[in-house]
Amino acid sequence: MFEFCSLASGSSGNSSLLILGGETLLIDAGIPLKRIEERLLEKNISPENIGRLLITHAHGDHIKSAGKLARKYRTPIWLTRATHAEAQKLGYDLTDCRINFFREKENFGKLKIKTFQVPHDEAGNTGFLFEHGGFRAAYFTDLGALPERIYRDIHDCDFLFLEANHDVLREKTSRRPAQVIERNLSDQGHLSNEQAARIVERVVRGETSRKTRAIMLAHISKDCNHHVFVEKIIRAALQKKQAAETVKILLAPEGRCSEHLRWPLSAATAYLKK
Ligand SMILES: [Zn+2]
Ligand SMILES: [Zn+2]
């Protein structure tokens, strides 16, 4: 049984709940701890039941409450050495926390996890593939580009969580400082809607024997994007693969929980447009 819900997504803070293979994980803790607690309780999940906290990278919108949460609930933190070093450099307090460093492949009980290093500012970022009993969920947010070597691992995954940060024209014509715009558009920045759509086209197998049933687009910029743009471009990408009728598009909102996804999809046939 797979369950997934974004508790928050965007530049003001990110956190996601993922349940698979008997593991209850929180990915990132970039919103105030109180909000994480409230949003978990909305789902009848006690924060004590979070078995592990996975951190993608050391930006405040992903890590700022990690130490607090881990100390209060004794939740083990998983992150890369580079993220840990960067967190220390930037002053995110992870003292008295149970710190574990990711290897490329991890087994958390029955849940298999593959970690991927993706380009995003100096210390990079970690993407994930979660696997259990033939079910595969891929998770990628905050990356300038998806390295070629990753496609093979995530191809035809059942669920894809993917950043669609900005519309390129809106980003270019925004009032942001020139170097922020340049960084966001670069390979060290964030994925544009267009990049996300090209990734979707390659990940979704399309037409026959396809597995992908839902894609959630994330980290959508408030200033330089709009949910309507994201949905339109992703729908067009799915149409190219003749998969628009069978793949549910979801958008992760910034300040509240997303739709709560529950597999198996037999219980969620409402997603499939007849
Ligand atoms: Zn971020
Ligand atoms: Zn970031």
From TrEMBL:
One of its GO terms (molecular function) is hydrolase activity. SMART domains: Lactamase_B (SM00849). Residues 13-190 form the Metallo-beta-lactamase domain. It comes from the Bacteria. Pfam families: Lactamase_B_2. InterPro entries: Metallo-B-lactamas, RibonucZ/Hydroxyglut_hydro, WalJ/YycJ-like. This is Metallohydrolase.
